[in-house]
Amino acid sequence: MNWFIFAIGKPKLGFARQGVEEYAGRLRGFAPVKLEYLKASTREAESALLLARSEGMFRIVLDERGEEPASRAIAAKIATWEQESVKSVALLVGGADGHTDALRRAAGWTWALSKLTLQHELALVVLYEQLYRAYAIKAGLPYHRE
User: Fold this and answer.
1) Bridge-partner residues for 92, per DSSP?
2) Is residue 145 part of a domain?
């Protein structure tokens, strides 16, 4: 399964960039993940761009209104998508004004990393870490503890 992360806005926080790089490196052994930053604009234009870039992919919208699963549940979802032969998954990270209703309706799943509203660069670090954690759970690695 191929992962594509489409995020609005260029990164500015050095520590967040380092966090993304750390977990992107860890994920390489499990699944290909491509991160693409898209130009910030109006919420409508950003959502239209996210929809266009993710055409034909299983869309996951990152939004505080979404489901807030535990890490093991995310690992189980990934396993299910793999069994269903989902080829490409697009994780959509919005800009400062969030997503339009049309984008949310086009999603296969809406995922809340937290009920808190996260600055998008911090959301990327949490997203990458949770993807790595899910794959570590699936592989039986001792990274995740309960």
Assistant:
1) 6, 61
2) no
Given the DSSP bridges, would you call strands 2-8 and 58-67 parallel, antiparallel or unpaired?
A: unpaired
Interval 5-38: pLDDT, tens:
999 998 889 999 999 999 999 999 999 999 999 9
CATH of the domain at 96: 3.40.1280.10
Q: Is-contact 38 50, C-beta < 8 A?
A: yes
Task: Please tell me whether residue 37 adopts helix, strand or coil conformation.
Answer: strand
Q: Which residue has the higher pLDDT, 145 or 30?
A: 30
119 three-state secondary structure = coil
pLDDT tier at 101 (50, 70, 90 boundaries)? very high
Number of structural domains in the chain: 1
| CA distances to 89, 97, 114, 125, 131 from 79, in Å | 13, 32, 22, 22, 12
Q: What percent of the chain has pLDDT over 70?
A: 100
Phi, psi for 55 (deg, rounded to 5): -55, 130
